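note to self: dont lose this again. the chain is below, predicted strucutre after it. 321 aa total, dont forget to put it in the shared folder this time
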Amino acid sequence: MQNFKQLAKNVINIEQQAITELLQYIDDDFELACQLMYHCKGRVIVIGMGKSGHIGGKIAATLASTGTPAFFVHPGEASHGDLGMITSDDVVLTISNSGETVEVLAIIPVIKRIGAKLISMTGNADSTLAKLADTHICIKVSTEACPLGLAPTSSTTATLVMGDALAVALLNARGFTADDFALSHPGGSLGKRLLLRLEDIMHQEERIPVVADTAFIKDALVEMSLKGLGMTAVVNKNNVLTGLFTDGDLRRILDEEVNIHHDTIASVMTQKPRTAHADMLAAQALKVMEDNKINGLIVVNELNQPIGAMNMHDLLKSGVL
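---
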């Protein structure tokens, strides 16, 4: 019987060592590669064959999503027309563990003729591809995790990690921010958390629950029922927010001697409630609500006048929660 757990641990230990070995290759050549990509006026074109191609596709995607415009070109397709995607303003990143991949080498003369800068990423600094490049990044590993030494394992992991090193180094150099990241990730929960603002989801105009501070409690209850947000803003004669009345406040006053037909809302409202601004991220609003254990927020303008309202259900419907 095979000890699968031990075999798996051996693979992880070997690949972990391969990653550690990469530190010695963060050198002047790596620095030059970063400079070429940082100052690139066009796009970074990533090229690789087989497993290197699969890793290259991921590297191109990571670069593109972190501020360095990039895309992947298959070397076989490049020989049949896709070389037209490459211009003299581009930087080409070629990946080949051996540095002798025929399909990649076949298109190098054309890339040179186009005038694009060439970066090679190989496990052999003396390879043809390494020597033809403007700069070479070494990704040599001492041992593949495959016991036969045949299936790319440690070498592909090392390539992936080196690609991440390039992407993150460039991200930091460009001053790339979370807002920048969000622009290339508009879909899914991540994009929504980084892009969606309260102005995009808040209830506005006649949908805002609001009563005057001279209104009776029963009027506030009617307004809350009509608008269905579990709260109502309370304003003075200048439409400035003076307080908030919520379902929680209603439960509180049930134990008090109040007359909903004769007592004003100002006598039972919560004064100086938490508020939000229209340009606040929905994710930030969620944190405010969670930290303060509240279910809704009134959105105000610079004059502290209500211009919107939202609650947890709105965050749930928008996909932020």
